Known about the structure:
mainly alpha, 2 helices, flat
Amino acid sequence: MAQAKKIGLYVIVVFVLYTIITSPARAADLVQIGFEGISSAAHGVGQFMTALIA
């Protein structure tokens, strides 16, 4: 099972590197979208906590 996880990780790393090398603009867009999602989620949690306290 550990061998399968290691192979899966290598496949993901190779795919990410391939995507970055072949299309850096698209990869940058995907990273930006990911960070915007994380930021939005954190903002939502902050609003929820504020409403819970108030």
